[in-house]
Write a structure and sequence with these properties.
The protein is an all-alpha fold and 136 residues long. It is built from five helices and no strands.
């Protein structure tokens, strides 16, 4: 059985890893990594919206602020997509995403872990993975 939080955490960690590579890269590799980061963040946000955020009220949490943050991040990502060679624009989008993901993990996940059954977690993990594939 899959664990939705482990699945999402792996995705968060992937963006952090790609960002580390991005910061070290130069030239066309940097632009390619920027485009990969942009695609990953867009797909991740869409997948969370379609999976775990749809059940947030069940955990005593409100997904509205998360969805608002996703909307802001997606706008930054759109700006970054239009300027993938502009390091400042890309960095702003990615660092905002990382701050958002760290807040999810530290502030919201304990409440989710307390109320999420393993079967629900597995179901949400599958929803997340499928939504991410369709968003990519």
């Amino acid at each position: 059985m899959s664990d939705v939080l482990a699945t999402i955490k792996a995705d968060h960690d992937n963006v952090k890893s790609l960002f580390g590579k991005y910061k070290a890269a130069t030239g066309t590799e940097k632009v390619t990594l920027a485009k990969t980061l942009i695609a990953e963040i867009k797909a991740h946000s869409a997948a969370e919206d379609a999976s775990i955020y749809s059940d947030y009220s069940k955990f005593g949490l409100n997904a509205a602020s998360n969805k608002q943050e996703h909307a802001e991040i997606n706008k930054m990502v759109a700006d970054a997509a239009a300027a993938s060679s502009n390091e400042a624009v890309v960095t702003k989008a990615v660092t905002t995403f990382i701050t958002h993901s760290d807040e999810e993990e530290s502030q919201q996940w304990p409440a989710i872990k307390a109320k999420l059954s393993s079967s629900e977690s597995s179901s949400l993990a599958a929803q997340f993975v499928n939504a991410k594939k369709s968003a990519a």
